[in-house]
Amino acid sequence: MPREVVRASKPYVGFRALLPFGIGVGVACAALGATADAPTVTALSAIAMDAETGRVLFEKDADAIRYPASTTKVMTALLMIERLDHQKWYAAPKEVETVTGSSLYMKPGERLRGYDLIQAVMLRSANDAAVTGAVHISGSVEKFCQLMNERAKALGCENTHFNNPHGLNDDLHTTTARDLALITREAIKNPLFNKLARMQRTTIHRPENPQDAVLVSKNHWLRQEPTADGIKTGYTDPAGRCFIGSATRNGFRVITVVLKSEDTWADTAALTDWCFDQYRVANLGEQGKVVTAESGARVELLQSVRTLVGAQDDWEADFVEPSGGEPYVRFVARDGWAVRVAARKQPQMMAGMGSPTTWALVALLVGGAYAMRRKSRRISLP
User: Fold this and answer.
1) Interval 322-366: pLDDT, tens
2) CB proximity list for 134: less than 8 A, separation 6 or greater
3) Which one of 131, 206, 303, 352 counts the least CB within 10 Å of its CB?
């Protein structure tokens, strides 16, 4: 049974000693020391998110409505990966003649394989390739945008409205740093998206225009950071410089988003380094371990609880016995982040006698009294 990570329905309400959960978290937190100052970023909106759990590690105006520019293409590429036949050849529609900005300079009727259209969207950020994929998937750009918005809503995006598949400026085409992080977290679950997000250079099959078949990514993050694994640049005058980054270190992956930044690479580096300095992967409890919940109930964990811990993470444990489901322990961090793990209640021992140490002391006293009685009887014999 996989563990389930959830957002806590109530905030952290107090400190709970870490000893019932084992020393793993205590050691990890002690090693981190005091929380360092939050990173300084020039971006008007920014967020850093753990890729596995979705836990927000840092945010700055993450819900402010912004123009996304070509970071839009994370959603576009994901839908193209899922819905185009990668080996089929697709003809560019007449709409490509009116598409400006970054482009393959496709002419109406030029054909490219589905896989090459996707590569062009990710590496060259080709707006005409995005429109070609959108029209072939949904029949029109407008219907494809409906598909984009439906998918965004299903992922929990509350402030996103896509009005085109490429990100060229449009007053009705807006999102937030938080929503882009949620979309990216879904996209990187796809192996092909991950491959393309890391790719710096490729050559596509382009029989009708072989002189323009080499695609080179403008993602400098991939070249300057050895642990980088994506993802997508974006720029228009109204949106400013935007970037969705990713890096994997120390056993976990962090997604970063910066919107309207003065220096996307410096902002991304500052966010990334801070997250890996402040957080570690640790166990809250091993499978089979008995922990004491806030209610005093003793419960056995049916799974190991592995999550990120930070320097200021204190955890409390709530035991929940839902009427229509399996019981579980919910570990709640100070910032409200919660991890839920299946558990079962242990039978209660006699009041005041529940400690193994107490039982050992009782056994020692009883055994000693019995030995003294036998010795006393031997001494009194004639």
Assistant:
1) 887 889 999 898 888 899 999 998 876 544 445 555 555 555 665
2) 76, 140, 141, 144, 145, 165
3) 352
Q: Which CATH number fits domain 45-261: 2.130.10.10, 3.40.50.1820, 3.40.640.10, 3.40.710.10?
A: 3.40.710.10
Nearest to 144 by CA among 163, 129, 159, 120: 163
CA-based R_g, the chain, Å = 28
Name the nearest CA neighbour of 200 among 179, 184, 221.
Answer: 221
pLDDT for res 324: 79
| Contact yes or no for 67/236 (Cβ under 8 A) | yes
Bridge pairing between strands 240-249 and 252-261:
antiparallel
Beta bridge partners of 247: 228, 254
Burial category of 199 from C-beta neighbours within 10 Å (exposed 0-12, middle 13-18, buried 19 and up): middle
Q: Percentage of the chain surpassing pLDDT 70?
A: 81
Whole-angstrom CA distances from 320 to 12, 299, 301, 344 are 16, 10, 12, 10
89 and 109 Cβ atoms separated by less than 8 Å: no
CA distances from 42 to 37, 60, 264 (A): 15, 10, 8
Nearest Cα neighbor of 327 from 352, 351, 354, 346 is 346
Show Cβ contacts of residue 234 under 8 Å, excluding neighbours closer than 6 positions: 68, 69, 70, 71, 72, 73, 125, 167, 241, 242, 243, 244
The pLDDT tens digits of the residues spanning 272-298 come to 999 999 999 988 889 999 888 888 888
Written as one letter, the residue type at 123 is L
Residue 133: both structure tokens together: 């994929």
Q: Which of 260, 262, 258, 261 is nearest to 246 (CA)?
A: 258
Q: The pTM is what?
A: 0.82
Task: Say if CB 122 and CB 77 are below 8 A apart.
Answer: yes
